[in-house]
Amino acid sequence: MKTDDFAYIVETKKSFDDAVVSVLRAVEQKGWNLFQIYDVKERLAAKGFQQQPLKIIEICSGKYANQFLTKNRLVSLCMPCKINVIADNGTVKIAGMKPTMISQFFPEVDLKEAELVEKDIIEMVDNAR
């Protein structure tokens, strides 16, 4: 399995903080809900570890979540969707998990349904770029 199989990743010329704000705007414009933002660098620093900036932004579409959970409640293991903003040695990347992977783990989730969710994730990542 390659990274491209499960993640959609783009580089941006924006600063790390501006990229985070852009993701939040893209999520809002798409009509998805923001669940939580995790500042991984900050949390690890509290334990004495140093990392470059990394924020995990959890998002959800109630419509898609309901569709998937109705088919198999264990899909919740793959929820909520995430878009990460990653500082990586001078570059800033925006990465989203490809929800089409869910249909490989849970065959009752139709690939076409997962593709619709993935289309939204890719649009949000691209719009945040």
Fold and architecture overview:
This protein has 129 residues and is α+β, with helices and mostly antiparallel strands. It has a single domain, classed as TATA-Binding Protein (2-Layer Sandwich). Helix content is 46%, strand content 27%. The chain has 6 helices and 5 strands, in the order αβαβαβαββαα. The chain has a 5-stranded antiparallel sheet with strand order 1-5-4-3-2. Helix 2 packs across helix 6. The longest helix has 18 residues. 24% of the residues are buried. The mean pLDDT is 96.
- Strand runs, count: 5
Report the CATH architecture: 2-Layer Sandwich
**Can you tell me the CATH class?**
Alpha Beta
| Count of the domains | 1
CATH homolog superfamily:
TT1751-like domain
The multimeric state of the shown protein is: single chain
Looking at the structure, the CATH topology is: TATA-Binding Protein
Low-confidence stretches: none
Enumerate the strands of the largest sheet in spatial order, edge to edge or round the barrel.
1-5-4-3-2
Structural class: alpha+beta
Radius of gyration: 15 Å
- The share of residues in extended strands comes to 25-35%
DSSP helix fraction: 40-55%
- The outline comes out as globular
* Element pattern in H and E: HEHEHEHEEHH
